[in-house]
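dumping this here before i forget
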Amino acid sequence: MNAFTLLKADHEKVAGILEKIDETTERATKGREELFAQLKSELDVHARIEEEIFYPVLEEYEETRAISLEAYEEHALVKQLLEELASAPKDDEQWTAKFTVLKENIEHHVEEEEGEMFQKARKVLSEDEIEDLGTRLEEAKKGPLSATAG
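structure:
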């Protein structure tokens, strides 16, 4: 499978969950908790495969190095927000506000990744490399966290 196709499919799945959470109110704590657990799970796996497989490949090329380093930082911010949201009461206005910040950060990250990053990656990677990366990403999604995950 093409690496970009796989990552875009993940992005679309996450966007769908974000929208569902966005439509909830502070009174829908059970629904929020279930959707948030699903979101966190999807993002944990997605971030792991990008950080362990996709970004390290892009770091090797001058054209894609800076944007991959920026992506790691964006992931760190999203992970911090996820942790804060996980431990906060879901029926609180503050949770809703923080969730909005998380959603905006994810949307910005996806837009940058699917735009500038993928565009630059297509210039430095061959079709075979893109397919191979996709296969590696797909396999990694099925497996447990590696020993190198930080």
